[in-house]
Amino acid sequence: MPDAIPHDVLHLRRAITLADQGWGRVAPNPLVGCVIVRDGQVVGEGWHREYGGPHAEVHALRAAGERARGGTAYVSLEPCSHWGKTPPCTGALIDAGVRRVVFGGFDPNPKAQGGAEVLRAAGIEVRGGVLEAEVRDQNAAFFHAHSAAGAVRPFVALKLALSLDARIADAEGRSVWITGEEARAEVHRLRAGYDAVAVGIGTATADDPLLTVRGAVEPRVPPVRVVFDRALRLPVDGKLVRSAREVPVWAVCEPDAPEERRRALEDAGVRVVAASGLGAQLAAVREAGVRSLFVEGGATLASALLRADAVDRMYLFYAPLLIGPAGAAPFGGIATPPLADARRWRRGDTQSFGEDTRITLARR
Per-residue pLDDT for 148 more than 90? Predict the structure, then answer.
C-alpha cells in the first residue's frame, strides 16, 4: 500500500480547498483558508470571504471557540502580522491559545510577511512552506503583484476556446460557440477573479461581446473591460461602448490613433489608454491599477502576447470538433524556435466541463 499522506498535508489541502470559496471576492488580498484541529479532530474551518472582512484564521477560530486552545491551526498562507483593514491574524492565533501553526506558503507581501517569527516569539511551534507550490498556483496573480515583474505589467492569463485541431474560429471567422454551456459558465467564473477582461479589436468587432461576469460568482468589483485597439476602431454603437457607463471600458491604443475617434469614445464613457507597443501598453494598464488581466483573444492578440513572452497562465478549453486548416489559428503568428529552445509550460489541472476539456498551463 502507498504511504499514508501526512496529516499536515491533508489538513493544509483542505485549507487550500476552502480558500477557493473566496474567488472573486477578496482581491487584492490573497485566497486563504484555515482549519483548526485538536486531538486529531477538526473543530473549526474558515476562509477569507470578503475584502475588508475577517481573515480565514478569525472565521476558523470563531467556529472552534475554546476548542482551539492547545490545537493546531492549518493555514494555506502565512498568517499576517500587520494591521490593515483588520487586526493581525498572528494576534488572534496567539490569543486563542493554539500551540502549533502549519502554513502552506510564505506571504510575499512585505507589509504582511513575518508572521511565522511573531508566532515563534510567542512560543508557538511553526512549520511553514509545506505546500508552497500549490499555494503559489492558487494565488498566482497575488504572488506576481509582489514580484519585480508585477511592478511592470499585470499577471496575464490567456483563455482560448479551441477545436481539436487548435482553431479558434472557422474560415469565416465565426467562433460562437465552439465550447458548450458548462465551459462558458466556467469562463464566467474565471472572469470574476481578475481585475480586467481583455480582447483584441478583431474579436470586439466580430463578436460584439459584452465581457461582463454573468454566473454563479458575483465579483466584488466588476472587472474592467479592456480592448486592445491600435487605431480606436471600437464601434460606438456596440455593446461594450453602450454599457461603458455601467461597467468600465478601456480602449488601449497607439499614441497616433485618430483624435476624433478618441473624442467619440471618451464622450461615450470609454477610458482611452495610449502607449506605443504592446509592452508599454501592458505597463500603462498596470499603472492604471490592473494587477491581473484575463485575455479572451483573438488570434492576433494571443499571438502578440505569446511572442512578447507576456503570458503567465493559459486556460485552454478544447471542444470535441474539427474545424480544418482554413480556420483561425491563435499560434500561427509565433516564430518557431529550435525544439530545444521552445518554452515548455508546466501543466496544472485538467478538468471536464460537459463534453469540453480545460487544460491549465503555467509558466515554469
Answer: yes
CA atoms within 13 A on the CB side of 303: 14
Q: Would you list the DSSP string of 36-97?
A: EEETTEEEEEEE--STTS--HHHHHHHHHGGGGTT-EEEEEEPPP-S-SSS--HHHHHHHHT
Name the helix (H) or strand (E) containing 278.
helix 278-287
CA-based torsion, 204, 207, 212, 213: positive or negative: negative
Backbone dihedral angles phi then psi of residue 17, each to the nearest 5 degrees: -65, -45
Q: Give strand pairing partners of 317.
A: 161, 358
What is the average pLDDT value for the chain, to the nearest integer? 93
Q: What is the pLDDT of residues 89-99, one digit of tens each?
A: 999 999 999 99
pLDDT at 152: 95
Record the cell numbers describing residue 123, joined without a space.
512560543
pTM for this structure? 0.93
pLDDT at 304: 94
- For 197, the enclosing helix (H) or strand (E) is strand 196-200
Residues classed as catalytic: 57
Span 245-268, average pLDDT: 98
| Half-sphere exposure for 312 (CA within 13 Å, toward CB) | 21
Q: Strands, E, within 267-340: which ranges?
A: 271-274, 292-295, 313-318
298 upstream amide cis, omega within 30 of 0? yes
- Show contacts of 346-355: CB within 8 Å, 24+ apart: 348/137, 348/313, 351/186, 353/179, 353/180, 353/182, 353/183, 353/185, 353/186, 353/317, 354/180, 354/181, 354/182, 354/183, 355/180, 355/319, 355/320
Residue 277 amino acid letter? G
CA separation for the pair 115, 118 (Å, rounded): 5
Contact yes or no for 69/39 (Cβ under 8 A): no
Pick the closest to residue 230 from 272, 260, 197, 188 (CA basis): 272
253 to 179, 219, 250, 346: CA distances (angstroms) = 30, 27, 10, 32
Q: Which residue has the cell 477573479?
A: 193
Tell me the mean pLDDT in the region 134-150: 96
